[in-house]
Amino acid sequence: MIGRQTITITRQTPGDWVDGVFVPGDPYEFEIMGNVQPAGTRDVEHLPELARVKAAYVLYCYAEQTELNLTDCEKPAAPDRVRWNGRDHELQSLGDWSHFGGTASHRAYAMIEVGQEEDDE
Q1: DSSP letters of the chain?
Q2: CB 113, CB 54: distance < 8 Å
Q3: How many CB atoms lie within 10 A of CB 121?
Q4: Nearest residue to 116 via CA among 49, 51, 37, 59
Q5: Would you say 34 and 59 are in contact if contact means Cβ atoms under 8 Å apart?
Q6: What is the pLDDT of residue 3?
Q7: pLDDT for 54-110, tens place per residue?
Q8: How far apart are CA 52 and CA 47, in angstroms?
Q9: What's the pTM value of the predicted model, to 2 decimals?
């Protein structure tokens, strides 16, 4: 993969119920090697409608690395946050080409910048 760089991922550990109140888990960071590119038209089409107006990028990484958590209403896990170019991004969708093997074996995560609303005001 051309132009790989170290990407910092923040993942939230699972929370727990304490005396009837949900207490979120602690975040922790780890690093992967990847390449970030601007999202193309097809990538943006796979984003939720309200996310399409935000800055969107695609994170390409080798398939043998840790699979990342996406924004998904059906999964209890919080989405992973990607720290890139000094800003936080949330993973939204996945193009999984891990079954190709060899040098073509990779995953492409579409991600949107989070926290833009506060910056724009």
Answers
A1: -TT-EEEEEEEEPP-EEETTEEEPPPEEEEEEEEEEEE--HHHHHTS-GGGGGS-EEEEEEETTSPPPPP--TTSSSPPPEEEETTEEEEEEEEEEEGGG-GGG-EEEEEEEE-SHHHHH-
A2: yes
A3: 5
A4: 51
A5: yes
A6: 76
A7: 678 888 887 777 778 777 656 666 788 899 888 898 888 777 776 666 666 778 888
A8: 6
A9: 0.74
pLDDT at 119 over 50: no
Is there a contact between 114 and 81 (Cβ–Cβ < 8 Å)?
yes
DSSP-H helix ranges across 23-91: 41-45
Contact call for residues 59 and 82 (beta carbons, < 8 A): yes
Nearest Cα residue to 16 out of 80, 82, 76: 76
Under 8 Å between Cβ of 69 and 80: yes
H-assigned helices in 24-101: 41-45
